[in-house]
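Chain A, query sequence.
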Amino acid sequence: MLAQILVSGVTAGAVYALVALGFVVLHRGTRVVHFGLGDQLTLSAYIVVIGQVFLGLPFAAAILLSLLLSAGFGVLIERGVMRPLRGSPLLVMIIATLAIGAAVREGLRASMGPLPWPVPFLLSPAPFTLGGLVLVPANLAVVGVALAVMLALFAMLRWTRFGRAIVAVYENPTGAAIVGISVPGVHARLWGLSSVLAAVAGILMAPLITLSPDMGTIGIKGFAAAILGGFNSLPGAIAGGFLLGIVETGAGVYVSTAMKDIVSYALLIGCVLLLPRGLFGTAEARKV
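Chain A, predicted structure.
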């Protein structure tokens, strides 16, 4: 039973980890928590549906279109909303991100309707048994793609020029600017990168659950995973996502499916009270 819970929880955990990475990638560089990220996740899944149903694009082309538009939308948010608000109180920026999310959500409700849209998946959702464990090809694909994206992110941060610029801004924005790195340019790209991570999560999750304007609640789970792992730790975001997915699945089995969300948020509250830096978070020096 425990092994099956671990296997089942990993699928949701992989999606939560991607969203948590979106939060942490952006926050570490800009100090902004983007509470509209879950609604961007939903928008990305809808773009795939629009590309297939209304534009007649192949599945792969619709996904590519969604990722490109998601990245562009993230950059547009930074340039059009967050950059003019630079220097404003943190609460103002939080309200701005909430407003962006609400605008996306209600715009989807008005244009696409409140009813769910089916999202096809290339692999079968029919389960099969291997070594006593029940596995689903679609779920395995979700985990595999999510892990590949995570590895690509870490490889980019370590071995590319853009990745090294991000790390420099993470460590010391002033020092990065002194050596010629455009900090505002990095911020814009971080918004795009965060949006792409959320887009991948939305595209992976949409075939497995109901695609509706309210699917963005997954963003709350990603935020919880980021808090759980430590909001300044990329590995912590991944660990927090998988841990949250496994805890949710275990709660659904041993407690109640109606209670699993409550158990997840109780875990988050307990982490905030007892371990405010998260599992892998570290103390940060702040100039006051």
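The mean pLDDT is 87. Strands lie at 128-130, 133-135.
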